[in-house]
Task: structure prediction
Amino acid sequence: MKVLLLAAGRSQRMQPIPDKNFLFFLGKPLIVHQIQSLIKAGFDDFAVIGGNHNLDKLKTLPQDYDLKDINYTVIEQQNLDEGMAGAVIACEEIIDGDPICIVSSNDIVDEKAYELVINEALDEEVDSVIVGKKVDKYFPGGYLEIDENGFIKSIVEKPGEGKEPSDLVNIVVHCHKNPKKLIEELKKVSSTRDDRYEATLDSLIKGGLKIKAAQFDGYWQPVKFPWHIFNVMKYFFGKMEKSISKNAQIAESAIIKGDVIIEDGAKIFENATISGPAYIGKDVIIANSSLVRDSMVNEGCVVGFSTEVARSYLGKNVWTHTNYIGDSIISDNCSFGSGTVTGNLRLDEKDIPVNVRGEKMSTGTNKFGLITGENIRCGINTSFMPGVKIGSNCMIGAGLVIPYDIDDNKFVKGHIELDVRDNKAELDSSARDEMRGKI
Amino acid sequence: MKVLLLAAGRSQRMQPIPDKNFLFFLGKPLIVHQIQSLIKAGFDDFAVIGGNHNLDKLKTLPQDYDLKDINYTVIEQQNLDEGMAGAVIACEEIIDGDPICIVSSNDIVDEKAYELVINEALDEEVDSVIVGKKVDKYFPGGYLEIDENGFIKSIVEKPGEGKEPSDLVNIVVHCHKNPKKLIEELKKVSSTRDDRYEATLDSLIKGGLKIKAAQFDGYWQPVKFPWHIFNVMKYFFGKMEKSISKNAQIAESAIIKGDVIIEDGAKIFENATISGPAYIGKDVIIANSSLVRDSMVNEGCVVGFSTEVARSYLGKNVWTHTNYIGDSIISDNCSFGSGTVTGNLRLDEKDIPVNVRGEKMSTGTNKFGLITGENIRCGINTSFMPGVKIGSNCMIGAGLVIPYDIDDNKFVKGHIELDVRDNKAELDSSARDEMRGKI
Amino acid sequence: MKVLLLAAGRSQRMQPIPDKNFLFFLGKPLIVHQIQSLIKAGFDDFAVIGGNHNLDKLKTLPQDYDLKDINYTVIEQQNLDEGMAGAVIACEEIIDGDPICIVSSNDIVDEKAYELVINEALDEEVDSVIVGKKVDKYFPGGYLEIDENGFIKSIVEKPGEGKEPSDLVNIVVHCHKNPKKLIEELKKVSSTRDDRYEATLDSLIKGGLKIKAAQFDGYWQPVKFPWHIFNVMKYFFGKMEKSISKNAQIAESAIIKGDVIIEDGAKIFENATISGPAYIGKDVIIANSSLVRDSMVNEGCVVGFSTEVARSYLGKNVWTHTNYIGDSIISDNCSFGSGTVTGNLRLDEKDIPVNVRGEKMSTGTNKFGLITGENIRCGINTSFMPGVKIGSNCMIGAGLVIPYDIDDNKFVKGHIELDVRDNKAELDSSARDEMRGKI
Result:
């Protein structure tokens, strides 16, 4: 069974975080984790559908991450507006009579979900299988309406709380035994419809296609909004096994506690504390008196003197220096001047909203810091208000308070006005002598 | 002898610090320390005079603090404007023929002062006893004018330096063997007079009442102005015995030196230093790389990462995070965002004044920080100027400089104006490579 | 041979750093290091030419720094505008028939340069000797044009790159066997000429004076611009021998690594790190959790809690407190409030310019911090932009961003405008309970 791994999306709801497939967890991109899960479940034939923005990086994944003994093709989806349906159609040429399994990189599940779909597909009565995640509270997604035999009657998008046709949410782990038929039908539906894929399934069901709902009770995490990254981080922390490279340099006075991975070339300086769960990537530097806890610190980061990184995701090559980075997501190649702080708690201690495509959404927590794109440079002693987003390639001046989102490619300064007068004050050196005595 | 413990005052000169009776030292309210001193001196019958604002808390003191084998009544003083005289009159019903000892919660003395008054009262010739604290420099209080036998001729209020009738300052530890007579006389004097109690004593003296001045040479500290709290703190530090609870969790790398008390449930994290004298209350958390010295850190406080608390009083449940809290008095339930600093030294290094009821008073020291009421929330990277007072229930924004006092219940913001332009700068990644080499 | 040590210059290009002769390295003024080098090379007769501003300090050098068995005179140069020529003429009275060696305090060389000049002067054919430093890239100074026998034909000032007459730069280590003749000639040239000394040499050469170029290949560092101080610091670090005084108090948990000198009376507190090369002067205090690396911390400094001092020169009695002082030069008696930071990297990571006498000069590095004069007082949470200079006796307020140079004797404030409203927000104490659970 060939996997069609949908990875072409532009992660617009994640902005300014770039392509979520290349968020790094435990030293590997998210999409590699997904492929390895699929391999573990038994798949060995992959067509990864990418877009112009990530095609090159997708192509080199097998060699970059040593993915052996698999067939691996990358297919370009030209028109990303055509979504999932467009992605499947883009694969038309490589699809033969064999079954396919469509997997979206939006849904992180454990490999049991993939095994489940393989098993259910063995049943000869079944034409297609869709994984339905059992939920115990309302999630704003598509719900599976099923008959008494577990076959899907329809998929109901965002029915509203209390109106769910079942407790099964549609997860994009979809097996189709007759993919040619699927593509044929997809082509009949207007390419401008947002729900083209779902509408196609509906019409196939009406035409007699038997889609089994594979009821899944395991781990599932959509990766749709920035704050989902924290959940995925926790998931990987839960799976990680403690390991400290012999090629890491760890000062005798540094403290390493709890579950941690410390990779080759990392340097942990005096009196630094790594409090697990934590991942310290290749060549990362953790300077004196710093504290890293519950955080993912990717390859090449420099956590400077007396910095606290708490419950945060740092992309590659992020430089900090006497900062507090709390509950924040910092993309690759950002840097923060000494004294700069990510506020992560409102004064009124209420839940912190984040703007997503123009809409204020609650993150569901009262502890939430900063979200940045790549290549940010931020000056010293600046204060970011909780839930603010800074676009890629921005420069942010020193001593500022940043209360709202900043678009990509901006330079942000304050208006500095100083009152410079003649100094009339006189100092009495005895004051210092007295103070010295009190130290 | 029944003690009339006057505790109804509203501590107006202490504002925004609430009721000074409930300032906590070594885990107990100040008034409990006073009661225990009185018990130690031999008293076992207490009438505590409170006001509407603290009546409930006063009532439960014996059970809350395990004060055993004493008679204990709480009396409400309705009209707090009537001061000491009003407080004594409020006790009329519970006063019988037995002697009383009036003690004010404004005067902290060691138990020897109480023993002294008991002893002097044994003399049958004596009708009343007033403790006179021997002072060696001028204090702006009431002075005892005495005759050759040590009996008081009059009490002279604030005579001015050089005009003191003796070196004895009137401390409110007053024994009256005939309290009924006292009350009778008090009632004859107009209730609107500020000096009603003193005027009554004068008239009683003229009528033949023999008031002995009990000359006291021990510890005395009035608790009138906020900075007196530091003196009281020192007093209790001097009396404290080192004790570290077995139920405290102290990281191996944490450093505890000097005289400290660390209570049950406290957690001291890695590389934190507690440098005595210091009191670390129940369930207090001292996070990594923090330093607490010469400070009272009451129950439930969280001293966050890399914070210094020096020569300060923190009420209960104060949260700090990468702050410098120096020479400051922070009331219960306040919190400070990362990077916020209490300035405690003027640029000109002169003595620091504090506003008390509209008047600028010198604190007598050039090291003085912040005074706050309860329930303050302060943002990140804010700077408080030395000697500033912040009222209860205030919220103070991020990145501000607070140069003056803020009343209760205020929300303080700055005017944020950012200049957001297109970023024209280009980064050369080799710069970072070079810098990495220098780390 | 008498040394004429020229030390009268006012270091104008070094401003606001005062007299460079009294910059302290390894506990001694720069000029004492120079004298000791000269003694080591064999000199024992010194005339130091000073100006009104430093005469007193120059006079007491032998007793202050235990310079034994030498002749030592201090000569005042009245008119400092007359430069090197004026300095030599000022010595007329003390010059007899013996040779002199003119040495400028602008040029730091190792003692081999002095030995070289002594040796070359032994040659009877030689009338004068000038040390020529072999350079391998262009330096904007005077170049020696020499003949085939190594005698100087002329000195070419700033010839421009590619037009150098040789690879030998004129270093002011000049021996003259007939100083009386030199002075006689100097007097003939107009005192208003900038190049009076060089013009005199030219005319002497034309008159047959044989000046040998002593080709020198060792260490040479001009001390002309503030950033040269970092080079000199490195030079002395290279020569220093590890030594930790028995009279220093070093906490058990403090970490001392690499080459360091720690002098008498220094106190290193808990969890502080000194990472060599570093010099910690007499009575210096390094407080808890601080980090000092690649820095010169002179006598009496207080490096307060959680401060990083990196690649910096701190004069005497500099007080820091929770600061980052990076790539900075701080003159004596300055102090920085908690949270104040010296920015040392531009957002665009380009080389950092510094104003020198009205002209923007590149420091040649992208890591450069603050330059200050003496007696600065700076408030809390202030941000200095990279390459800024603050004049002596300035006071700088709290919470400011200082983007440009400040002249001597200024008081700098910002315009504080707060928006103080009634606080309508309500706090739900359960939020804190939840947060406490997550610590």
About this structure: The two ends of chain C are 73 Å apart (CA to CA). Chain C has two domains: 2-222, 244-412.
